[in-house]
Amino acid sequence: MSTPSAPPSAVRAVLARDKLGTFSLLHFSLTAATPLTVIAGGVVVMFAIAGQIGIPLGYVIVAACLWLFSIGYTTMSRHITNAGAFYAFIARGIGRVPGVGAAWVAATAYCAMQVSLFGLLGLTAQNVMARMGVDVPWWGCALAAWLLIGLLGTRAVDINAKVLAVLLAVEIAVILLFSASNFLNAADGVPLGALSPSALGGEAAGAMLALAVTGFIGFESPTVYGEEAKDRRRTVARATVATVAILAFIYIASSWSIIAAVGENDIVEAATADSSLMFTLAGDQLGAPWATIGEVLLLTSVTAAALSFHNTTARYLFALGRERVAPQWLGRTSLRTCSPVAASITQTVISGLVIVAWAVLGLDPLVHLFFYMSTSAGIGLLALIATCAIAVVVYFARNRRGETVWAARVAPLLSVVALVWVLWLSVLHFHTLLGVEKGSLLPILVPILFAGLALLGAGWGAYLKWRRPEVYAGIGHGAKAPLVQSAETELAEVAGGR
Predict the structure, then answer these.
(1) All domains of the chain, ordered by start, with CATH?
(2) pLDDT per residue over 343-357, tens digit each?
(3) Which DSSP letter does residue 81 get?
(4) Model pTM score
């Protein structure tokens, strides 16, 4: 006797269980941060923009802010498990209506961050192929990577983690090699002046701190995989805090080593003149092939980051579909791998359309796609992190839930002050981050766009409260939402032939 098919109304709410340990979660969060891209590109740009040598100290400050945030954030994750982490935390902390607004911002920002990487990826691959005597347009390389990432995005989550583990291990090994070489070839010894408070100041320093935060984006992703983690009460917290610590060490050591290799008095001029300064130093110190190796690894780094952000975006879309805040079909997972296949394919289609549009319109893949879009997405994500910090404070203010005063009250409150300050600096000096004149349209338009998305999302949340209270009641509750629970029961009954 054949098994009856599942009813059309059923939502498959199950992601893979007990698949990811601490190290697997680390692979997703560290690769999303693209440490090699940050060091080879972001750090050099910061020296040029800020015009000062206090970049290592800036990373110390930013790491301290994010560490404070991580304490309350991971403490809250022990009580709330949802693939749409920021969305769920804000919904359960501040309220369902602002939670839906946050969901719209999160889905857009993560999607934009992932899509932006195809610009850098395509251009880097084009340069590597050109060294081999092969002429391929950037968009051809980007589409090849797009196809690979789209296929991996529908596979089991532990397979993705294994792919990222290999790419990440090689990437970090080369970063440490380049940094050690810089210190061994120091121009004037170890530059202790780079850690002096006097080395970091002025208006440009505010923009630099904001840009430094974007280098850590991805550290928050372990909570997105909470439903798929082993012993989630421990692994998520360990992976999040470890990500902040590892990235801080890499960024501080690497930026400090570049100053050591060039010299305190010459670093700003050298960074302004050579945007590939890190690879140039590697070629001079270790031999010309190492500059090429660095470029190839930059390619794998960006590919790994695009895969990581693809998975994060897909899980946000899945979370919204599962709770019926977004179209319900986004909440369907593969029966075989339990991956959010519908949301993954949706993200693949969106990113493919953007690549094709950029190619047809002849837009610059580095400036207009990678730099502008990733920096803009960073502003949206920073606003989400600051709002989530407020949600943590509000959530534990109502009930400390047996957590320590430090983890539930003090650290979250300090993180709110720190993150709101950094967000203010980011918006205030956004024109400096983009490298455009003050008063230009883009620095004004981006914050307005994200504010508009938040308001539209909140409006949709208010509509759900008014017209669809059964959906509204489950916002932020994930697999425990009433509609999801009833749909899963129905699915189980039909599958069992009852």
Answers:
(1) 22-484 (1.20.1740.10)
(2) 999 999 999 999 999
(3) -
(4) 0.87
